[in-house]
Amino acid sequence: MLDPQKIAYLVVHCSDTADDEALTGCDIHQMHLGFGWDGVGYHRIIGRDGVIEHGRPDYWIGAHVKGFNDVSLGVCLIGRHRFTDAQMQALETVLRGWKSTYPAAKIVGHCDFDYTDKTCPNFDVAVWCRKWGL
Description:
25% of the residues lie in helices and 16% in strands. The chain has helices at 25-34, 85-101, 125-131, and strands at residues 9-14, 44-46, 52-54, 72-77, 106-109.
């Protein structure tokens, strides 16, 4: 189980799927089962329509950022490059909620971790956070 006192990162991801593919949390769950995981690795999934779905409960260790799963929560935007306004508004909602619970946690993109060459979520999360006042 995650220790709420140790949450250091709120990690933004994308599904790296076609921007016109309206996947759901169930689809991501099936995808991650196919990877041999214990199901969906994210704590929240945001659909193209801005609907926020729950993945793993916030108290469960995620499977979304190698080496940091025990100190982070992960949110995934469905798509690759062009996210909808509804998704961005939902992302703000998720992150503001988490920041109120974990005020010391830093909001980052998956790509901000040194261990990976991934570009996910394919936008600069720090710049986005400044724009949205986070």
